[in-house]
Write a structure and sequence with these properties.
Layout: H1 2-9, H2 21-36, H3 41-66, H4 76-86, H5 93-109, H6 112-117, H7 122-149
Helix pairs in contact: 1-3, 2-4, 2-5, 3-4, 3-7, 4-5, 4-7, 5-7
């Protein structure tokens, strides 16, 4: 069970990269969304919500395995955060790239509310900040798309 938790928590091993592990986890999340997520928005939302719940548990357990708070090797939170950033957006490479850039921006620089969410206990503190970064990125991309149509 421990090996499975670590495999999932480290984003199939992408969290073991020596630098920018969160970026590699986000890239994995973008690739999974692009290639494997269905085109049905409601089903994408359901998959993402279930994945967030699972990620809270897995990331919390991985934190115990690594015996370090929010260890950099844990990137499942970036994977699901990236999925949040892509929900209800058109499936184009331009949108995928833009959502990725904004997600990384919000995840790295963590505006106040996102930063405060890291104080939550265990898996919640690991995952919720990435969900909030994903929501922020998603909203920014939606605003861009709205103004590009005008």
């Amino acid at each position: 069970m421990r090996k499975l938790l670590l495999l999932l928590g480290t984003g199939l091993g992408s969290g073991y990269t020596p630098v920018a592990s969160g970026t590699f986890g986000s890239m994995l999340g973008a690739a999974i969304y692009w290639y494997f997520f269905p085109s049905n928005n409601r089903l994408c939302l359901l998959i993402t919500v279930v994945a967030v719940v699972i990620a809270v548990y897995v990331c919390g357990r991985c934190e115990e395995c690594f015996d370090k708070i929010d260890d950099g090797r844990i990137v499942l939170d970036e994977v699901v955060g990236m999925w949040v950033s892509l929900l209800f957006l058109p499936r184009t490479l331009h949108v995928l790239f833009t959502a990725f850039i904004f997600f990384r921006f919000f995840d790295i620089y963590k505006p106040y509310i996102i930063r405060q969410s890291q104080k939550l206990n265990a898996g919640y503190g690991i995952v919720i900040d990435d969900v909030l970064a994903g929501i922020s990125a998603n909203l920014v991309v939606h605003v861009f798309l709205f103004f590009m149509k005008k």
